[in-house]
Design brief:
Number of strands: 0
Distance between the termini: 57 Å
Largest sheet: none
Radius of gyration: 23 Å
Strand content: under 5%
Helix content: 55-70%
Oligomer: single chain
Number of helices: 4
Length: 111
Amino acid sequence: MALPKDLNSAAFSTERAKVVSIEAGSHRARLIERRNELVMSHLDLVESVARSVFAGLPPTFLLEDLIQTGRVALLDAATRYRPQQHGGAPFSAFARQVVRGAILNSTRRRH
């Protein structure tokens, strides 16, 4: 790569633009705090969905495994939830669908 003849040119400026990422401010911290609040307040939803799915499964499945899968899905749902993009649906309705889908997918992978 050839260097420009004028080392003071804008193309060869040694000053770099300041890079600001989402981690730089308190925005990310607020998002994570809100996500964690959603997760903690909806943990009971995971257990109820897991129990309802578990009732129709063969005895080779463990309820604890379904609950764990549901908790991971709840975290994912809380991360992805945007009320304006989901027709104003409450988080519990959105999360129930995500959790149930993840639990059912996990049972399909096993059998």
